Amino acid sequence: MKATASTLLLAAALAFWPTAARAGAPPIFPGEAPLELEEAEVSPRSTSVAFLMGFFPGMLVHGAGHFYAHDPEMGATLLGTEGAALVVFGIGWSSWRYGTKYAPYQSSNQKAAKGGANAMLIGGAIFAASWIADFAHAPIAAIEFNNRHKLPVRAGIGTLDGAPALYASMRF
Fold it and tell me: DSSP letters of 74-142?
């Protein structure tokens, strides 16, 4: 058992070793040059796709629109809120369905059912609010990402050689 624990400790230490070699970090060894990163190429995020990602996949996995729009903090917050809402809803359903058998803090089955129904309502409201926040705010997060990286996207209808055509233009 000790060999397994020491192996896990060694693996964890090696997993976090490279985090000290960030760009601009002081050298770890004498004479070593700081790590320089090349500039990554980023593509613009569409507000329509951000909305749709927040609407449908976001119905099941809250924060999907924000993850698409490169806003992982808000995406993780919405995903955690969804999980908390499901826990509250599940506790409420258990109390409503099984009464005092799984909710011994209640004095009667009727009170347990009423408290369970209230918890289900609160859990459902939190679930709905976090889903709405995902698809309502994801397009704004996409716009913020595009502005932060100076990547505005313009789309429209124009003509190409005299024929109507759809176009999209981006500035880099």
Answer: HHHHHHHHHHHHHHHHHHHHHHHHHGGGT-TTSSSHHHHHHHHHHHHHHHHHHHHHHHHHHHHHHHHHH
Rounded distance between C-alpha atoms, residue 77 and residue 154, angstroms: 30
Structure letter (DSSP) for residue 163: E
DSSP letter assigned to residue 29: S
Q: Are 141 and 50 in contact (CB under 8 A)?
A: yes
Looking up tokens 């429209």, which residue turns up? 156
Which residue's structure tokens are 């918890």? 119
What are the tens digits of pLDDT across the range 120-162?
Answer: 999 999 999 999 999 999 999 999 999 998 877 666 666 767 7
